[in-house]
Design brief:
146 residues; 3-stranded mixed β-sheet; alpha+beta; two-stranded antiparallel ribbon
């Protein structure tokens, strides 16, 4: 079974609210960046990333199975839960080999430029500091097409 894709909606936010309201999950990774407004998403997107405590029936949700949500830093937006920006960035750095790197780069780039050309305010877990240092220049230059 599949959740309908975003092509029926004006925004990913509207799509998430319609198809996910009432489901016991926490949006994560790229989907959290989208709900938080740090990544625009893709046209006709079909995949959703989410932490869950039980696997669900939808084949187009990337389920990240965890025991409970207690260890997550969660924010709620329009009735939907997602990981905070700091949690999301650290999770994406941790899971770098299986995530959408472009969404991470765009999110970091937008953050950098929206915060006076600085990453101040982001709290990077020391375990992922090397990975952050390795990609931050890519993020800074993400929109530079020269």
């Amino acid at each position: 079974m599949r959740i309908k894709d975003c092509s029926h909606y004006m925004s990913h936010h509207e799509w998430f609210v319609d198809v996910l309201t009432g489901l016991d999950l926490v949006l994560s990774h790229t989907s959290a960046l989208e709900l938080l407004g740090w990544f625009d998403g893709y046209v006709r997107e079909t995949k959703i990333d989410a932490y869950v405590t039980q696997l669900g029936p939808y084949e187009n949700i990337n389920y990240f199975l965890i025991d409970n949500f207690d260890s997550l830093d969660i924010v709620e937006i329009d009735g939907l839960r997602c990981t905070s920006l700091n949690q999301t960035i650290n999770d994406m750095l941790r899971d770098f080999d299986i995530i959408d790197e472009s969404s991470l780069a765009q999110g970091l780039s937008d953050y950098y430029h929206d915060h006076g050309c600085s990453f101040d305010g982001l709290i990077i877990d020391p375990r992922y500091a090397d990975r952050f240092e390795a990609i931050k220049d890519w993020a800074v230059e993400f929109y530079n097409y020269e």
